[in-house]
Design goal:
globular; 1 helix; mainly beta; 288 residues; Neuraminidase; four-stranded antiparallel beta sheet; 26 strands
Length: 288
């Protein structure tokens, strides 16, 4: 009993140290609504300024550069193990991938003959399976052909499958470090839902992983120990068991986040008009 108690205390102390000495730094400002951060192993951050219809590149020591103008309302972004960029275009209602020629290949824009609502966020597993959410916010509601919100899976061969029709609007999406659990934020229900995922990308065992989140959850990420980072009214960090571990306050409401830098120990946070970064003692879990 004493040995178990000592081990538990040591574990708690270790977790506390991982999130100590938090320092928040602003690296970009003056945008309208920032989203979709993703770190490239080539050494730069990409993020979306959705209303301004652009994707911006931030290079440490250099600053901001234009990456993609007239972006078709790109929201979520991610990369795969080959370093290819995937984006959710909310205005054209499609999921695209940037090819070597600098053009965008369309991976999904319709399901059962109807146009998607407005793809929002996306994650790609190391083996090429990908998942994305398809809600509808604001004006997107007025142009829907679907009578439901969707969570979709695309196989490495390009097959599109609908895996869930949640009552609330699905938003952020992420995978556990081993790629066997899919997490999806539901902004309306203020929950985080989890699915088990097999080697073929099939999902099962849908369950509420976190409930009563403080504010509508948006983007989510996972670190190497399986802790889940949820952008809501603040940045809330939960253990792999769904227990609240830490809350980090930002000057603006966080909307999404991504681990970056060469060691993936910096968390980049898009928050309304600005982008912030926080250096951590914990490495992020990335699938690329």
């Amino acid at each position: 009993m004493r040995t178990w108690l000592l081990l538990s205390l040591c574990a708690c102390t270790s977790l506390a140290q991982d999130f100590s000495d938090i320092h928040i730094e602003k690296i970009a400002a003056g945008n309208r609504f920032t989203e979709g951060p993703v770190w490239s192993r080539e050494g730069f951050l990409l993020f979306s300024d959705v209303p301004n219809n652009r994707v911006i590149k931030w290079v440490p020591g250099v600053g901001l550069q234009s990456f993609r103008d007239n972006s078709n309302g790109v929201n979520g972004n991610t990369m795969d193990a080959q370093g290819r960029l995937y984006s959710c275009e909310s205005r054209t209602r499609r999921v695209v991938r940037l090819n070597k020629e600098g053009n965008y290949d369309v991976l999904a824009d319709k399901y059962d003959g109807k146009r998607l609502n407005a793809p929002n966020d996306i994650v790609v597993r190391r083996d090429g399976h990908l998942w994305f959410t398809d809600p509808a916010f604001g004006e997107q509601e007025e142009h829907r052909e679907m009578d439901y919100f969707g969570i979709y899976h695309i196989t490495p061969k390009g097959e599109l499958n609908l895996i869930a029709k949640p009552k609330g609007r699905p938003n952020g999406v992420a995978l556990s470090p081993n790629g066997r659990i899919l997490y999806v934020a539901n902004s309306d229900d203020r929950t985080l839902v989890a699915y088990d995922v097999d080697g073929a990308g099939r999902t099962s065992n849908e369950r509420v992983f976190i409930k009563d989140i403080d504010g509508p959850p948006d983007g989510i990420r996972v670190d190497e120990k399986g802790n889940v980072y949820v952008t809501c009214n603040q940045l809330a960090i939960y253990t792999p068991q769904g227990k609240l571990l830490k809350v980090i306050e930002f000057p603006e409401t966080p909307r999404n986040c991504a681990f970056g830098d060469a060691d993936f120990q910096t968390l980049y946070v898009t928050a309304l008009t600005s982008v912030y970064r926080v250096r951590l003692k914990m490495k992020g879990s990335v699938q690329y």
